[in-house]
Amino acid sequence: MRIALAQIIQESNTFVPFSTSIDHFSAQYIRRGEEVFHGLKNTKVELTGMLSSIEDAGGIPIPLLATHGSCGGPLTRECLDFLLSSLTHELNKSLPVDGVLLALHGSMAAEDQEDCEKEILERILECLPPNIPVGVSLDLHAHVTPQLLKPNTFFVGYGAYPHTDMFETGQKTARILIDTILGKVRPIMSISKKPMIISPVNSRTTDGPMVDVVATARELEKDTEILAVSYFMVQPWLDFEDLGFGTLVCSDANPLKGQKAADTICEMVWARREELLPSLTTLEDAIDSGLKSPGVTIIGDCGDATSGGAGGDNITVLKTLIEKKADQGPALVYLTLVDAPGALKAAKKGAGSAIKLRLGHTLSKQDGKPMEVEGIVKTITDGLFKMSAGLEGAEMNFGLTVVLAVGSLRVAIRSVSGLEWDVAQFTSVGLDLSLPKLVFVKSPSHFRATFGPYADKILTADTPGPTRVNIRKVNYKKLRRPIHPLDTFDHEDNHELF
């Protein structure tokens, strides 16, 4: 079996004022051909999971393309065309193949395309002879619609949030593809959707309302005709008409049973919609509570979550800490900020130097103005580190990074926005997580996987920005109404599937 593999991942946010260009993908990595395998060494991601299953089956893996654009605004058409042409070029020169495996996000949009994954699949299928199967792994926050479903194509989503099962999802996707090639199964997709948008704060699969849903999904998969049950909380910061919670079920040639399973999961989540509403605190209360509490308090700066596409340059937290004189107290406080000019200026000044900087809102200019701070340059690094969970072993690139001491505040000023999932974003720049009283992370929930062991308390702050987790405060304009939680549903039967 010759099986082609490719990865194109980016999570889009339509509420940010900037686009994602080719440079954003290049800042992380763009690998072609055999370079794909070299970049996968010692990582546990979708592609390595796929590779593992192919090797176990005695197949021949054909690497095409691997790239990651992190999270941000919609792609420029130039960027999307570049990715599409790169992918199809590598595929065409690798033909013939018996199947194709793709690691996609599911919520990647372009300036003129709400569903980039749909366009990727269409271009892939144009290159392939009829009946060649395509297996696709998706992020649990994918935006799934009936238009995404294509002939000879099936989908498997992550099961865990925080995302700790990327490798296993890749394995599962590849096993289904291999069984399809061997004629053991015939995948058919079923979809179900509900008019609801779920905040990422209370939708973890490790605890809370989703635990029973996950257990039911795994129980449904014990039926040999149900190959994969995937639930999609959706990226909530997409202003699309058909946004909502979705379920995809991959059955073995039994669409009726698949549809019943998909509807079962959707109904379970719908019944828990009130339980899924987030528990939030104000930023001021979070600071006060953390400073008074024993041990380390981790606070999610949710409105500026880089993992949801925000720029990471909002200074609301920094400004509030200084206003509350937290910089003058004895307790150490860690926080981050994306500000490439500030990092460069501080680096040129040198470690140990005193410096005055204007920081913030280099990308999100509409959300505020920079503020002037004075501090001491503590460390200067290249911003490279390896992830320990989720994208385990993968290298993250935050670009030139400077730690600025503003009194008792330690501000990690970095040049490139990236996923704030891992404690290494602090430990790699010399910040010991056993020392601070408060640690701010620009993430609503995902950080819990690695920051949790250091935390005596975790709080979620309702901070402003393009990733606001109070869904009722998100300024949707295209969204189909009614939809929970923006609208009230008086009766249990007063809802419709999309």
- Kindly provide the radius of gyration, computed on alpha-carbon positions and rounded to a whole number of angstroms: 23 Å
Biggest beta sheet summary? 8 strands, mixed
Distance between the termini: 39 Å
Helix content: 25-40%
**Mean pLDDT across all residues, rounded?**
95
Instruction: Please tell me the CATH architecture of the largest domain by its name.
Output: 3-Layer(aba) Sandwich
Number of helices: 13
What is the total domain count?
2
Write out the CATH superfamily name of the largest domain.
Response regulator
> Which blocks of ≥5 consecutive residues have pLDDT under 50?
none
Q: How many runs of DSSP E, i.e. beta strands?
A: 19
Describe it:
It is a single chain. With 498 residues, this protein is of the alpha/beta class. The protein folds into 2 domains: 270 residues, 3-Layer(aba) Sandwich (Rossmann fold); 184 residues, no CATH class. Helices cover 26% and strands 24% of the residues. It contains 13 helices and 19 strands. The strands form 4 sheets. It has an 8-stranded mixed sheet. The chain has a 6-stranded mixed sheet with strand order 2-3-1-4-5-6, with helices on both faces. A 3-stranded antiparallel sheet has the order 7-9-8, with helices on both faces. Strand 16 and strand 17 form a beta hairpin. Helix 3 packs across helix 6, helix 4 packs parallel to helix 5 and helix 7 packs antiparallel against helix 8. It is globular, with a radius of gyration of 23 Å. The chain starts with a strand and ends in a 37-residue tail after the last strand. The mean pLDDT is 95.
